[in-house]
Amino acid sequence: MIKIQIPATSANLGAGFDALGLALNYYNYVNIEEADKIIIESLDGTAVPTDASNLVYDTAHILYDICGRKLNGLKIQQINNIPMARGLGSSSACIIAGLVGANQLLGEPMGLDDLVNLSAQIEGHPDNTAPALLGGIVTAVFDGKCVHWVKQEVYTTLKFVVVIPDFELKTEKARACLPKEISHKDAVYNLSRAALFSASLLTGKYENLRTAVHDRLHQPYRMELIPHGRDVFDTAYSLGAYAAYLSGAGPSLMAIVDADNEYFVGKLRFALDKMGLSDWEVHELHIDNIGTRIIN
Ligand code: HSE
How far is the CA of 68 from the centre of ligand 1 (A)? Predict the structure, then answer.
């Protein structure tokens, strides 16, 4: 049985729409082995499809097909800690698990670049799939076929405090609300900030992050779909966060917080409860520099 640990991811990082993403220490686990038929078990009770439509199975099947190998079935066991449709890369985690699992079972016919490319082709954009596989912060350009990427490890004590609303927001819906075109001025606004984000994170110029996470490509539109979203941002800033941004396509909201800001999580939890958002979860996370690993 191959045992795989896959991290959650936070994509876009404000202005880096479809280009930037980082991995976090919040994990799904997938056990996978060949079988005569499809056997899919959820070990934590999360509802998952148990037929060929299961994303881990479907993705593994794609790799078997590409390699010209017949697949009768797989036994897959899943622990889905990463909540679905919340902007934390749950689909990408399943895609990476399927690809990495199948690649192991087939004797590793695919290299790392193949897996980065295939996962982006399946998902449609690379900013969750690439960091889920590679870890760290990943800058990626997907030309429709290949991903041109750089992974950088981030050595920081920063906390990534995620607020997870109690409702789902499907990526298709969160993409459908975006404008088809933007102005030259807004393009410059975004690309300068996306570049500023990685450079500032990697060099420790955290005071830049607040400016860096502003964008005109997606957050202004998507925040309309998230009641109380702006209040959460305001609260995070009032409690001293360096920056607050929409994680991926949302609805999760991320605050980047100094390690010395000791009571941030407790204060934010208290504030959310006061707002009537007791069902929204708060987790303190950190960057995972390793990405997907095979565990024993
Ligand atoms: N970059 C993607 C988006 C991430 O914002 O739609 C979600 O998959």
Answer: 31
Q: Please give the Cα distance from 2 to 95 (Å, whole number).
A: 15
Q: Using an 8 Å Cβ cutoff, are 120 and 138 in contact?
A: no
pLDDT mean across residues, the chain: 97
Taking residues 225-229, report their average pLDDT.
Answer: 97
Asked if pLDDT for residue 23 goes beyond 90, the answer is yes
Ligand 1 center to 190 CA (angstroms): 15
Atom 4 of ligand 1: nearest residue by CA position: 248
**17 backbone dihedrals φ, ψ, rounded to 5°:** -55, 125
Domain range enclosing 263: 159-285
Pairwise CA distance, residues 236 & 38, whole Å: 45
Ligand 1 pocket test, candidate residues 55, 86, 175, 178, most atoms within 8 A of CB: 175
- Nearest 5°: phi and psi at 6? -125, 130
- Do 141 and 7 belong to one domain? yes
How far apart (Å, rounded) are the C-alpha atoms in residues 148 and 145? 10
Measured in Å, residue 107 CA sits from the centre of ligand 1 at: 32
Number of residues that make up the chain? 296
CA of 171 to the centre of ligand 1 (A): 7
Number of domains in the chain: 2
Q: Mark whether 119 and 194 lie in a shared domain.
A: no
Structure tokens at 264: 């941030």
Residues with CB under 6 A from ligand 1: 11-12, 17-18, 125, 127-128, 171, 175, 218, 248-249
Preceding amide of 251 cis, omega within 30? yes
Digit-coded pLDDT (tens) for 193-212: 999 999 999 999 999 999 99
Average pLDDT over residues 19-24: 98
Q: Per-residue confidence at 296, pLDDT binned at 50, 70, 90?
A: confident
